[in-house]
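Observation: inputs received (chain + iron/sulfur cluster).
Thought: call the complex predictor directly.
Action: predict_structure
Action Input:
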Amino acid sequence: MKYQELEAKSALNKVKGRFPFKWDLNIYRGCEHGCIYCYAIYSHKYLNDCDYFETIYYKKNILSCLEKKLSSPTWKHEIINIGGVCDSYQPLEEKLQLMPEILKLMIKYKTPIIISTKSSLILRDLDLINELSKITYVNIACTIITVDDKLRSIIEPGSSSIINRFRVIDQIKKHTNASTGIHIMPIIPYLTDHPGNINGLYKMAKK
Ligand code: SF4
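Observation:
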């Protein structure tokens, strides 16, 4: 695995299309979770790099860029999606600890957020998520596409186990005001599209 610094020109990307958020914030480029169906691999081509899973770029100046944007008198406090083309809680985050500082800025500037992750590392920041959720909209979701953890370890090798992802939702729901959700996507033909899997996911979510 290679880690490289990247200088960000700006923190937020304006999102076009019908999404429940106006902005996207990616603190990393590339993702160690290595999902075989990853939709975000294309984003590395802008870095002239084709090693999306093995070369992870981190934006060393992301906090100053973000504060510049959020402190602007023109900032309208619109919803920011954190992690459109990466998982913000991938393994490197354990070492760099950028997300607690990002969340502190969201609290300071009362900015609503959405986070989707496949990592239980997010529970490290439970207190900050709780603090933010008391003052503005926060939605935390985990992508969970199979009840079979063996299959999960093949198609999403760097991610947290299924049970730990359900625990994330459980803990966020119990200890914060954030709304929570599960993304059952993609549904992969022949692997995860059978009724036993889909019904199993609903049963575990209900529980
Ligand atoms: S967690 Fe998301 S961004 Fe990361 S490899 Fe999987 S699909 Fe791609």
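Thought: report the result.
Final Answer: Strands lie at 2-6, 12-14, 23-25, 28-29, 55-59, 80-82, 113-117, 138-143, 179-183. The longest strand covers residues 138-143.
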